[in-house]
Each structure stands twice: as structure tokens, then as C-alpha cells.
Amino acid sequence: MLHRHLEKHFNFSTFRPGQEEIIQAILAGQDVVALMPTGGGKSICFQLPALIKNSLTVVISPLIALMKDQVDSLQARGIEAGFINSSLNMGEMQLVIEKVKNGKIKLLYVAPERLMNQQFINLFSDVEISFLAVDEAHCVSQWGHDFRPDYLQIKNFITKLKIRPAVGAFTATATPEVKDDIIKNLNLKNPQVFVRGFDRPNLKFFAQTDLKKSQRQTEVLRIIQTLPGSGIVYSISRQETEDMANFLSDNGIKAVAYHAGLASNRRTQIQNDFMEDNFKVICATIAFGMGVDKADIRFVIHAGMPATLEGYYQEAGRAGRDGEPAYCILLQAKRDYGLHNYFILKSRDEMMSQGKNKNEIDRVCNIKYDRLEKMNNYVYSTVCRRKNILQYFADPDLSLLKSNCEGCDICLNFKWTNATPLRHRTRAERTVVKARSNTVLETAKLYQQKYSPEQIAKARSISIQTVITHLADWYVSGGDLNIRDFVSTAEEKQILSAIKEIGNVEYLKPIKEILPESIGYEKIRLVVGGLGRVV
Fold first, then answer.
1. Which residues does 242 contact at the CB level (< 8 Å), separation at least 6?
2. What pLDDT sits at residue 287?
3. pLDDT in tens, 350-389
4. With a threshold of 0.85, does the pTM exceed it?
5. Whose CA is closest to 191, among 175, 170, 167?
6. Of 229, 218, 251, 281, which Cα lies nearest the Cα of 422?
7. H or E stretch including 255?
8. Where are the alpha helices (DSSP H) in 331-486?
9. Contacts of residue 13, Cβ cutoff 8 Å, sequence gap at least 6
10. Distance between CA atoms of 397 and 395, rounded to whole angstroms?
């Protein structure tokens, strides 16, 4: 039955690891804690039960952008969902409330600070919440890397409800200390704890060690020049993000810096541009990522070692959420370890100046040192990197891991000298591989259901450019696509003329350069696809 609902509402034929058992627990009315990586499919775990039970699920989410992306995606699939946060005016907010009262909305996203609003509390004196989902649940713990005091109000909100709903806590990463805090601070009742899905086979893990700063910049450029699609380069400091963005831009890569020091409207614009692939690379601090729901990120490069393995995996895990191959590359310099040691010593001084207990200070610092050491061990590891990750998160799928994962530099016996992680294929090879992939078929299925490219992009959290690329690959393999939905007869003639002039279709840039600005790469891909079409 669950698979039928999954296909009906989300067009997926199979569950990802851990999803089905979590959904079954929620449908049984149990509290749950779900520790699943970025890209592991947490959202389906609370969205599908709401649709199956045809009852209200309230989702507490910390970021307005993330709420909007999730609601847009659901609405694009024809699912009634809404959100209440500070981006709405009173009239808009009242309209959402009326829809909740009338039972039209089954998934309501709210910001945690809304929970103490009396009008919001009064709403649920008449409306029963079937399930309360706490997304980014690590925010409730002071041990978490993104503690938010408003999350501590969730427990009080639950006590004010006439009927206590089942409660679920969802996070991409949580150490044992954070997990225990989540259970305590949300007052969960005998929760089932699930740690699943940390093995994401489509992600390829690589690491280089002991690079110098200038050498690291050059290596980032060299790698990016060989990788397809868009990606993120993480740096430790704001200044390093600016330096990296300038360096890449000066060398012909469309790149932009993103960090907390930028104005809010500028950050929003950068996020929107990145969603539509207007930049190939965002050079960011850890301020970037949690609120960005982009499934087709093809690479994440860390130009600097993070302080913890959970922080690294959450950031790296933003790659390849569409299930397609993606690259997670860590470029470490010796100074990284010393810099994080300095940060720990600085935090010790701050805690001492605040008058905190010495034993407590020692305990906190020892935990930070332990996490840093495990991160450093990962970098210098001589055994499978995927195994390192699954062991760290205590994922039961570790027992299923092959002795050679075939997806990390250790198992591949990869040597960095004049090499890059991506094995180059011809355009024909790449198209055949893509056309057979699940993510292309999911896009094609929505197209066959008369979804527009814009609707598909929202439903799947990918850019319109990626949608068109998927459809082109599907078209080449024999898919029944009406090219006139995208390319006029006159445009097709111009593109064919340009192809004839260039003489080959292995690279699209030379073709694009002799065409009018109005004819983008998407239209060229479709026409090129038609030339090699399998019928």
C-alpha cells in the first residue's frame, strides 16, 4: 500500500533506505527520531503519512526559504500545503488559517517563533494536529552546530494542545549528545530512533592533504574546470570565500561569494540565481546550504577541513540529492587543524570569562577536540572513506558495505597527480547513461502528466535548465517529446545551420556563440538530441 501512495503522490517507485520503516512508525502513532543525511529523503517521511491519513501535519522549520521551497514543490505536485511565517501579511496569513480550519491544507509549515503566538495557539483549539514534525531538530540542542533558542518553545507548545500529537524529530546529523538533547528537550515519548541512509552510493568521496593556500586555490580551479553542472566550494572564513570567488571569476568560472556578512536581500538573490544555474559555483561559508533546496548540485568541494565529520557530511551531502553521480572533494592544508585548535582555545577563554564551571568547560572542549581528531583521521585515512562515515554515524548499513565501495579515492586507488575524479565520457556515452537514470525518468514522467518545465522544476527542486537537459536525454533515447513545445521551427533551422557551420556537437559552447542570445543552451540540447535520437 505504501508504495502505491508513494507512486501516486510523488511519482517515486521505491523508497530510499530507512524511509518506509519511519513512515510505518509514524502511521502507527509513535514518536520518532530520524537521523538521515542531507539528501536521504527526510521530507517524504512526514509528508506521505499526512496524505495517507488525510489529516493535518504541522512541520516546524527554521528557515523561510526552506519552507517556501518545500511548499512550492508540494503545490507543484497538486498537494495542498501552506506556510505561516513573517513573509506573509495579515491577509495572506488569515487565508492560510481559513484553509487549515476547513481541512484543505494537510501540511502546514511554521517557524518556531510562531508557536508562542496566542492567535496561532487558539487555532489548534478547534483543529487537531495528527503529527508534529520538527525539521532540523538539532537546532533544539545547545550541542548542535546551529542551536536556536526558539526551538526550546516547541515542548511548551505541545503541552498546550488539547490532544497531544505524535511527534517526530528529523535531522541530517546528530552526535549522541545531540540525539539525547533532542529527546529530552522535545519531551518525546518512548521514541523509535532510526539512523539510516548515510550510505549514498551516488556520492564519490575524494581528499587531498597538506596543500598550501595558493596551491589549494589552483587545485579547486583545475578540478572545477573538469566537472559538469553547478556546485559549492566551502571555505573556513568569509575572506577566503571572497578570495576564492575572485580567483575563479578571474579564471573564467562564473562564481560568487556567499556568507553571513552579506545583506539579506543579496543573499536571497544569490540563492535564487544559484537555483537557476546562473552561477556555476557558490563560494561559501557554512552559512550557506541549510535553506537551499537544490537537488542537482553536482559537486561540493571543501577548500578547508571542517571541524567535525558531521558538519562535513551535512555540507558534502548537499551534492547529488537527485540521485545522480556527484563529487565530494576535501582539500586540506596543514594550517586547517591548527586553526580549529585555535577556535577551541578561544571558546575555552570565552566560557571562562562567562564564569562557567571548569569541569563543564573541560568536558565541552574535550568533546570538540575528539570530534576534530575524528575529522582529521578521516582526512588521513587509508581505509574506505564511506566506511569511515558509516562507522561514525553508527549506520546499520555498514554491515552491507562491500570491501571495495568503488566510490572513494582509497577504494579506487586514485592518484591525484595530473588527474581529476571525473572520468570523461563522450557526449554520446553521457547521454546514454543519463537517459537510463531514475532522475531523468522521474522528470519524463511528470512531463507525460502534462507538467510544465516550471512545475517540474519546482516539484523536483531542480533548475529549469536541468529539466530541459533531462527531457533532451530522454528524447534522444526515444522518449515521446514534442520538440515544438520548446523550440520553434525557425529556431531549429538556426541551430541546425550553426551545427553545420561548427561541424560537430561534442561541445555546445561554439554552437551557442554563433547563435542569437535568445537561443539558449536548453534549445540547442534538444535539437542536438534530435539528431542522435533512437526510434
1. 257, 259, 283
2. 59
3. 888 888 888 888 988 998 899 899 999 999 999 999 999 9
4. no
5. 167
6. 229
7. strand 255-258
8. 334-353, 358-379, 385-393, 427-435, 438-448, 453-460, 464-476
9. 3, 6, 7
10. 5
